[in-house]
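TA notes, week 10

Several of you asked for a full example with nothing omitted. So below is the full record: structure tokens for the whole chain, then the designed sequence directly under it. When grading your own attempts, check the secondary structure regions first.
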């Protein structure tokens, strides 16, 4: 896909809105002084970074298009947020968090080149058929 490809989704605004809400959640969680207690499954800090940036990159490749700007944006965002944490006076900058973010971006982008890239289109079609004109 590229920028000239028409958007294939009936609910494109919804999918993109969900994506930006996820970005907002990552920004807030990255900069709040005290993080909420994570579920024990995701208790490891690097796993949270990895998972967040993998999901974000994959979601944006699904809801917009596979384009170099999404991985670049998320690598820059993850790096910037991590650096900003060092200025809070409460949290610190961790280069391994930046590495985990970047690894997540790489995995998210890699997933966008698998058959999973069609998953949102299939769900959008199903939702469109289920709701008809009432949604």
């Amino acid at each position: 896909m590229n920028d000239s490809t028409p958007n294939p989704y009936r609910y494109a605004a919804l999918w993109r809105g969900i994506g930006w809400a996820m970005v907002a959640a990552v920004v807030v969680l990255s900069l709040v002084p005290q993080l909420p207690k994570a579920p024990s499954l995701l208790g490891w800090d690097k796993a949270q970074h990895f998972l967040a940036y993998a999901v974000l990159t994959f979601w944006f490749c699904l809801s917009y298009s596979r384009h170099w700007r999404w991985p670049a944006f998320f690598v820059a965002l993850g790096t910037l947020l991590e650096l900003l944490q060092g200025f809070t006076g409460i949290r610190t900058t961790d280069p391994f968090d930046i590495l985990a973010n970047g690894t997540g971006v790489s995995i998210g982008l890699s997933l966008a080149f698998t058959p999973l890239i069609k998953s949102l289109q299939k769900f959008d079609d199903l939702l469109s058929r289920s709701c008809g004109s009432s949604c």
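Residues 67-116 form one domain. Use that as a sanity check on your answer.
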